[in-house]
């Protein structure tokens, strides 16, 4: 077993997409471990707290009229002309990787164990011992067209802080209403429509003393983690799919194991969209988007060895924790294959919790019948009395429902 380090830099991240054609930032073998740094794509909501003085973050977010450190920010082409900025197809998340796994082939399953997760501290001396994150009530949020206070509509950014050494809670510092921001290329962004735009704090009004009696329990986890799909060369980071991606489940944190079907040689694992805390549904648009470092272990399960194991027949992401298994249903299990050439844009027109629930039910049924050898009638009965189905997210176009079965239901006295 080897232990690798993958720090963030403009050369080790890709922004807004998964890809089977990007050169791996790291190649390792089954059984190896890696410490991987990740950055939030919302760090420029407060440059001073989340970027300034941090060499890794500064190298990624560097953007002047003369130089843009990471040009492609989405699954579109890297060069223009553009309305919002280069790579303006779809996709927003900063992902570290890809990590290639030697010997991984389509049909295999990659197990990713999250051994530890820790916050990336602020670097300015005045913020020593603190980590900061941004929560955005955004235009893609479930609430956006159902507001009751003026102005309507509006996007609101709330900055939270965590003590990196003390209590595991997040506290709100201030919030502000998004105002039109002009990027270094002269493009005006009236809404939050392009990742990494630096907010000029001279243009916003900070509202302090908010959520003054609230402490949000920290749930450090990775919102986006998975493998490259095979269907297209550049795939938006926003909708989750059969190889994982932007699942946005707060349970994908320390102590969890994620299992992903391999779709391309090398698997091409990427991780990012780090969160300090999130509730089921991620209703307003984002979690507390922060920067985290994780320790991971990678185990490759070859297709020939899957029979008779809990991975037999696995064609979708699955979570295992010490206490439970979870499967993930989506509006479309594989929207890339089901919706055709324009799938990455078309999926946003089909968001449905009904379809996601149906998919989660089918996946849980398969798991109980295949892994636990239940009949269909037994599986349906157990799901109704012993499984929990919840809304994972309603903000990622391919909406999600998770189905969870606790391990202790299979223990007999």
From TrEMBL:
Domain of life: Bacteria
One Pfam family in the UniProt entry: FmdA_AmdA
Annotated protein name in UniProt: Acetamidase/formamidase family protein
